[in-house]
Specification:
129 residues; mainly alpha; two-stranded antiparallel ribbon; 6 helices; 2 strands; 74% helix
Length: 129
């Protein structure tokens, strides 16, 4: 029983059945689902590496209003990353994400700079017209 003692509680809970047996598993499942959602949010930033600013510029074209919207959206998204928190906790699970956050922030900064440069070129062309 010494080495297998850690299996005793789960087996006893299953034997009890009903809500007493389901509560611990439900709590663990809740933490895992929350963690999964958190990971999905960070994986969404992968598009920053997959997409190219040139493709965005081609899609937006020379419409200053669309450019303004893209620049504002990028700025709002970047500001959402500015957080003092570096650890997310999901019950007993702790995720330290400061390194990933730093890399995503750098990529956003690079994207913003490139998009602003392209926007400036569009505006300069409009002024010349």
């Amino acid at each position: 029983e010494g080495q297998r003692g850690h299996l005793l509680l789960p087996r006893r809970l299953r034997e009890l059945g009903g809500p007493v047996g389901r509560l611990p598993y439900g709590a663990v499942e809740c933490h895992v689902l929350n963690l999964s959602g958190f990971v999905d949010q960070w994986l969404a930033y992968q598009t920053l590496w997959d997409a190219r600013a040139a493709d965005v510029a081609a899609a937006v074209g020379d419409d200053p209003q669309k450019w303004h919207e893209i620049i504002v959206e990028a700025s709002v998204a970047r500001a959402a990353l500015d957080s003092a928190a570096a650890v997310a906790e999901f019950g007993p699970i702790s995720v330290r994400y400061n390194k990933v956050q730093s890399q995503v922030e750098l990529k956003y900064d690079s994207w913003q700079k490139e998009l602003q440069t392209r926007f400036a070129a569009v505006l300069a062309e409009r002024i010349r017209e």
